[in-house]
Amino acid sequence: MLANLGLLAGLVLLIIMALRGVNILIAALVSSLLVAVTNGLGISPTLLEHFPFGPLGAFSFAGKFFVLFLAGAVFGKMMASSGAAGSIASAITRGLGAKHTILITMLVCALLTYGGVVVFVVVFTMYPLGVALMREANLPKRLFCGAIALGAGTFTMTALPGTPSIHNVIAASALGTDLFAGALIGLTAAVVMFVAGMVYLERQWTKARAMGEGYAVNAQDEYMESMAPALKHGPRWQLSILPLALVLGTIILPRLLIALGLADSDTAVIGFANGEPIIWPSIALVIGAASCVLLFPDFRQKAMESMGAGANDAIMPLLNTAAVIGFGSVVTQTDGFSAFAQWVLDLPLPPLLSVFASVSVVSAIVGSGSGGLQIFMQTFAENYLAMGVAPEELHRIATLGSGGIDSLPHCGAVIAMLTIMGLKHKEAYKDIFVVTVAIPVLATLIAIGVASLV
């Protein structure tokens, strides 16, 4: 009884500490110790074995995915520092006009994240430009925040095939699939997320106008807007988009060559690309970063500085994710988690629906889609493969499931985005919940239906 209560208390403590803004490294460690003490795991084994090492250890995860986080952060920083990301955002803004602010925001964020730019770089790129857009369109800031969440944190992270997102790479690495696994399932879910998310946000804007709700400036907006002029001096958008195209093109190239009959899977480079779901997208991101130096002459003098800043930017997201996974590693050592896992597997549900349920619950507990997915792959995946679930279907449904209920109020990404924009949960979380939780859950259920028919 005490063990189960301690497990529950550890989970509740992690959520409360996250909501109160406690550093996730501290929150995960304290919560892990609570679980360990109440479950008789021992303090020393917990701190020196269960939390840091093993298949789900914090440092095991950090070591395995360090290169990917580093390459992604460096590429994102170089796109931002060169002005290329801002140039793309400005071009889309000019093309569509302020009356389409929600669509502009969503498209810019989706394009950049699908091209490999990390989420926080996307937020810092779009936010300064968005202040002027919000003011001109009189758009409530909560809906601007919702549009960023939709574009940067939903279908480009979990649904679209080929994305170099950490979610997609975790699944490919664990299952031996590639980044395009379950393409039809993913595309179906992506369309649902895109259409339903846009319909919801546009309807909310219509209601806001009818009620006289509009844009309200705060101190954070004024500070961020002061950064916008620097973004306008970037390279032409036609040139700026090339690094994104290079990243995606490098990832797609092996499949394209095979499809055109120009190579087969036994070719050395093709075999390497298909067999290295972490290294290959990392190489693609490095190529994208190198292209920024080659394509943007004005950027070359500060390229090394940006590279160093990008490397620094990679550390905290990597450690934060690793800390959550380390907490999950401690939790998986308990009898309570074993009982929970068996209970989920014994539920009278179709296998894919069971996959969705299990990965969703784990991701919700830790408040991290990537963390929940890593825990799922280490503790549940083999059972579902033994049930006859195809690896490609498991890859895509598990990835989709990890990107829904993870975005509860204690989710680190949600807290960070609200903090950056100077918003509180009570002001903006309802819209974030709809576009990052409710709609992705619906999309995943529809995708499961499609998978069962294929």
At a glance:
This protein has 454 residues and is mostly helical. 77% of the residues lie in helices and 0% in strands.
Describe this structure in words.
This protein is mostly helical. It has helices at 2-19, 24-38, 43-50, 58-81, 84-96, 101-114, 119-137, 141-153, 155-158, 166-175, 183-210, 219-225, 228-231, 237-240, 242-259, 268-275, 279-295, 303-331, 335-346, 351-366, 369-379, 381-386, 391-402, 412-421, 425-453. It has one domain (2-453). The radius of gyration is 22 Å and the shape is globular. The mean pLDDT is 89.
Please state the overall shape, judged from the principal axes of the Cα atoms.
Answer: globular
Q: First CA to last CA: what distance?
A: 45 Å
- The amount of beta strand, in percent, is under 5%
Major beta-sheet overview = none
Q: Class by helix and strand content? A: mainly alpha
Number of DSSP-assigned strands: 0
- Name the helix and strand elements from N-terminus to C-terminus, one letter apiece: HHHHHHHHHHHHHHHHHHHHHHHHH
Gyration radius, to the nearest Å?
Answer: 22 Å
Number of domains: 1
- Tell me, rounded to a whole number, the average pLDDT: 89
Number of helices: 25
